[in-house]
Amino acid sequence: MLHKSTLRSFLNAVSRFNTGLGSASGLATMLMMMIIVPDVILRATISFTIPLATEIGVLLLICKIFLGMPGAQASRANFHVSVLTELLGERWRKALRLITTLISIGIIGLLAWLTTQEAVYATGIGETSYGIYPFPIWPERIIVAIGFVLLTIQLIADVIRTMTGLPDDIAPEGSGIGPE
C-alpha cells in the first residue's frame, strides 16, 4: 500500500501536469490568431487565402480544447451547478461528488478507448484530408485521444483524492476536492 504522502505527491503531480498542459494549450489560441487573422484580412482585401490556414486552425483548435480539458478538471475550472448540492450535508455532497465522478470516468474512459482505437487506425493508414493540399488528420486524432486519456486519469485521481480525503494542492479552495 502506498504511503499517504507518496500518494498525495503522485496525485498532485498528475494535477500539476494536466494544469500545465492546459496552460500550454492556451498557446494554441495565440497561434490560431496569428494564422486566421491574416488569412481573413487577405481574403477580404485581395481575395487571397493562405494555403492550409483552415486546416492548421482546426488542428490548433483541437489542441486548445482537448489538451485543455484535463487541466480544466485539475484546476476545477469546469462548469458545474451547485444550487441543489449546497443544500446537502458534507457527507451527501461527498457521496454525490464520488458518484458523478465515477459516472464521468465511465463515459470519458469509453471515449478515451474509442478515440485511441481510431487514432491507431488513422495513424496506421496515414489519414489525410481531401483538398487542394493534403493535410494529415491522424495527429488530430492522436491529440483527441490523449486529451480523453489524460482527462480519465485526472478523474481517477479526483476519485482517489475524494475517497482518501487527501487535500488537493492544485485546485482552488472551495472546489470540493479533499477535506475543507
From TrEMBL:
Subunit structure: The complex comprises the extracytoplasmic solute receptor protein and the two transmembrane proteins.
Keywords: Cell inner membrane, Cell membrane, Membrane, Transmembrane, Transmembrane helix, Transport
One family name in Pfam for this protein: DctQ
Domain Tripartite ATP-independent periplasmic transporters DctQ component: 32-163
Family to which this protein belongs: Belongs to the TRAP transporter small permease family.
Mode of membrane association: Multi-pass membrane protein
Biological function: Part of the tripartite ATP-independent periplasmic (TRAP) transport system.
Subcellular location: Cell inner membrane
Lineage: Bacteria, Pseudomonadati, Pseudomonadota, Alphaproteobacteria, Rhodospirillales
Stored PANTHER family: 2,3-DIKETO-L-GULONATE TRAP TRANSPORTER SMALL PERMEASE PROTEIN YIAM (PTHR35011)
Membrane-spanning intervals of the chain: 21-42, 48-67, 95-114, 142-160
InterPro entries: DctQ, TRAP_DctQ
Protein's name according to its UniProt entry: TRAP transporter small permease protein
